Amino acid sequence: MTSAPAHVDSPDYAANAKYVRPWYWYDWANSAFVTTIGTVLYGPYITTIAKQAACPGQDTDLACHTNLSLLGIPIAPGSLAPYTTTFATIVSAIFLIFIGAVADRSPRPARLLGIFAWLGALAAAGLFFVEGTRWQLGAILMVLATICLGSSLVIYDAILNDIAHPNDRDKVSSRGWALGYLGGGLLLALNLVLVTMKPFGLSTGMAVRISMLSAAVWWGIFTLIPVLGMWNLRGVERPVTAVGEGAVGGSLKQLRNTFGDLRRHHPQTMLFLLAYLFYNDGIQTVISSSSLYGAEELKFEQSQLIAVILLVQFVAFFGALLFGRLAGRHGAWRTVLWSLALWTLIVIVAYFVPEKKFIPFIVLAVGIGLVLGGSQALSRSLYSQLVPKKREAEYFSLYQAMERGTSWFGTLLFGLVYQLTHTYRLAIIALIVFFVLGGILLSRVDVREGIRQAGNEQPVLI
């Protein structure tokens, strides 16, 4: 198909190319939190804290069938971590859309990115003080950190449309994800040494708390690179706010029209978001629950789990680059569909991994690593093609509400299945439905038509 001419309001990609390298570094910065805290340490650690509160004096390696109580609602200690993620996402679904509308009107998006990143890092640093039976504090801080992460990523993802030409977005997005996995993996390697060796007589709990603190500090410090590197970046001209409306008032008015506009004028974008809602929930639930599944169901030690997640990180670095190359030959849409078939197979294999059999668990981890980075990076670049001009951050807020660490259908189902059956095996196998439904919906997305509806330039290959 012949490419359509660029829109008259297209950014000056040649001039903005200097911002690509600093843009990459925010993936490096926030992946420390996503990996060390969100994926590896938070779930098992807050579950231990919750067990101590619900079953005082009992060995935390044993199952605790006494529920916690929050505003009269019974919560199984083993369900606290996925329920926390669920609540964070419900709040994010409202908050992030508002942030997207405000960000589209921000003259300096990198500055706003930095504000949310540093607030999130501060909340994550507060997890150091979660000990004893302070499960409420741990849940609140994780909710705040997750919302701030999502807010910063709304802005970060939207910037992709200003700095990368449509033909380059698969490559740029994949490289960003790859760098993120490398950065998150390096810090996780250091934390593996800390949790395993426990130098200076540290207890396991203290080693975990220090590791979570290190992830927060990493996130905060390395955010300086993209913020300062993109300090002068300005996107394409945004809609002019009416006199007296103000940025917030204009944003609220803009939000009232978002979903109606999506349904009436961008049905292919809406269909993609619906597909992404399902399959990304499956991906995020596998990621966020993997350490919990390994610790509680397969009975692996914390050091073993960190080693496996570390392996996933480095395999995912190469997996993201590999899938970027596949997209360059076969298109991002088709490559993402292939990845969903692989995710379905991975969940089935996870159900049958025997307890305390480490080698099969490692093989499973390699499979996850290969498909993880590619499916996420290419979903981001594919969606960027479907976003209407001048509303990038607003539309990416819809996307980010379903992004990493903010899935809620999957975590809710995972938590409910465990609470009803007291087995994580049935909880993990239930996630197949998300990959199947997401794949069916994605196969029906007409990407070329969606790009035309958004008024964007058609890339050579999709």
UniProtKB/TrEMBL annotation:
Protein name (record): Putative membrane protein
Membrane spanning stretches: 80-103, 110-129, 135-156, 177-195, 207-228, 305-323, 335-353, 359-378, 424-442
GO cellular component, one term: plasma membrane
InterPro entries, alphabetized: Atg22-like, ATG22/LtaA_families, MFS_dom, MFS_trans_sf
Membrane topology listed for this record: Multi-pass membrane protein
Annotated ranges, domain Major facilitator superfamily (MFS) profile: 268-462
Species in which this protein is naturally found: Nostocoides australiense Ben110
Subcellular localization: Cell membrane
Record keyword Transmembrane present: yes
